[in-house]
């Protein structure tokens, strides 16, 4: 394990990093003997060819299984092409917490977060240049997922789709969209299941309100929501990511889940180079090569193996049996884009707060 040199921007940042640090997992790939002082030295000079170069990847927890396979492949390719060893420092945690950590001083060269809204926060902090979405294929969306409904063994409540979540006798587990990026996908999936299926906003609000009347607790993030459902045994159905459900199944830890295929949201996961940090570290060339590598069939296949829907069409076809086709797959852009979604639904006093007020008064 190698020591990072952080430059904290605030006292709040210190506590943010401290909390994130509890859940951080630092690992080395390609070489585990790199000297500690090769990290984030603050020297803007690029590493000379043949010298070890360090790259810091900051991502959210469930991507780790894929990157453990992808990083050695990239490191091998970089070594062959450039006669240079590349060593990765990896940090995994909740997407929102990781975002805060990077803003507060975790010197990521590359961020691969759960939603573009988090990446945009780093852009707003001045660390990523405007227009990052257009620097990579597919608007920098490197893989996708959809929302799924995880049920108890045998599906005793007979959950078959979105509308069943509004039944009076069904308890739904989902995290708080005000504090969890993953829960924002869940909220939009509920809302869009109405509006993208011919309903209007009034009907969408009525349905979403009914569902949240069935939510007994609002965990702060997706991981806590999963614990509430699996470890504490609360609820009849958990709204989760398809990739998490698949990965849990692969580990033998999963419960039955179904993918609503009539209408669903495309959970788009971006990747970006952190411009301020790669320029500081002299790692722009290797960082840009790494993010480009993530779109190759070789890397896309590794994402697909652990539950992410690949954006490479050829690889998507190879894994078509694993990922049911959704008839009406909508995106955040279909709902106006992240800025509008944030303002309309999740800002203080916006639609989600209104719904919570109704539920509290019910």
UniProtKB/TrEMBL annotation:
List each coiled-coil range: none
SUPFAM superfamilies linked to this entry: Periplasmic binding protein-like II
Where does it live in the cell?
Periplasm
Which key words tag this protein in UniProt? Periplasm, Signal, Transport
- Biological process according to GO: sulfate transmembrane transport
Tell me which Gene3D superfamilies the record gives.
Periplasmic binding protein-like II
Which InterPro entries does the UniProt record give? Sulphate/thiosulphate_BS, Thiosulph/SO4-bd
Q: What is its main location?
A: periplasm
Q: Where is the signal peptide?
A: 1-36
Q: Please verify whether the record's keywords include Transport.
A: yes
Q: Which GO terms describe its cellular component?
A: periplasmic space
The record's section on CDD domains has: PBP2_CysP (cd01005)
Molecular function per GO: molecular carrier activity; sulfur compound binding
Is the Transport keyword given for this protein?
yes
Q: Indicate the family of this protein.
A: Belongs to the prokaryotic sulfate-binding protein family.
Protein name as catalogued? Sulfate ABC transporter substrate-binding protein
């Amino acid at each position: 394990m190698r020591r990072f040199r952080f430059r904290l921007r605030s006292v709040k940042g210190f506590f943010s990093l401290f909390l994130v640090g509890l859940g951080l997992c630092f690992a080395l790939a390609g070489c585990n003997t790199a000297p500690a002082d090769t990290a984030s030295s603050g020297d803007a000079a690029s590493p000379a060819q043949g010298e070890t170069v360090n790259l810091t990847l900051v991502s959210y927890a469930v991507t780790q299984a894929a990157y453990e396979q992808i990083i050695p492949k990239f490191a091998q390719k970089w070594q062959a092409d450039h006669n240079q060893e590349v060593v990765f420092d990896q940090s995994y945690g909740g997407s929102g917490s990781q975002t805060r950590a990077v803003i507060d001083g975790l010197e990521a060269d590359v961020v691969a977060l759960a939603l573009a809204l988090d990446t945009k926060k780093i852009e707003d902090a001045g660390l990523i240049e405007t227009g990052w979405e257009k620097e990579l294929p597919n608007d920098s969306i490197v893989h996708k997922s959809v929302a799924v409904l995880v049920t108890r063994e045998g599906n005793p409540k007979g959950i078959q789709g979105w509308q069943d979540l509004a039944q009076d006798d069904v308890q739904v587990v989902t995290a708080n969209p005000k504090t969890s990026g993953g829960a924002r996908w869940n909220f939009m999936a509920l809302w869009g299941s109405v509006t993208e299926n011919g309903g209007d906003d009034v009907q969408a609000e009525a349905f979403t309100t009914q569902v949240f009347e069935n939510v007994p607790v609002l965990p702060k993030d997706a991981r806590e929501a999963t614990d509430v459902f699996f470890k504490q045994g609360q609820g009849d159905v958990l709204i989760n990511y398809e990739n998490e459900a698949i990965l849990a199944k692969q580990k033998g830890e999963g419960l039955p889940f179904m993918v609503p295929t009539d209408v669903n949201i495309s959970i788009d996961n971006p990747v970006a180079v952190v411009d301020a940090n790669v320029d500081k570290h002299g790692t722009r060339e290797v960082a840009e090569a790494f993010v480009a590598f993530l779109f190759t069939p070789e890397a896309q296949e590794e994402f697909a193996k652990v539950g992410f829907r690949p954006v490479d069409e050829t690889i998507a076809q190879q894994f078509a049996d694993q990922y049911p086709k959704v008839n009406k797959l909508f995106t955040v852009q279909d709902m106006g884009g992240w800025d509008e979604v944030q303002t309309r639904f999740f800002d203080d006093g916006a639609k989600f707060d209104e719904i919570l007020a109704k539920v509290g008064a019910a």
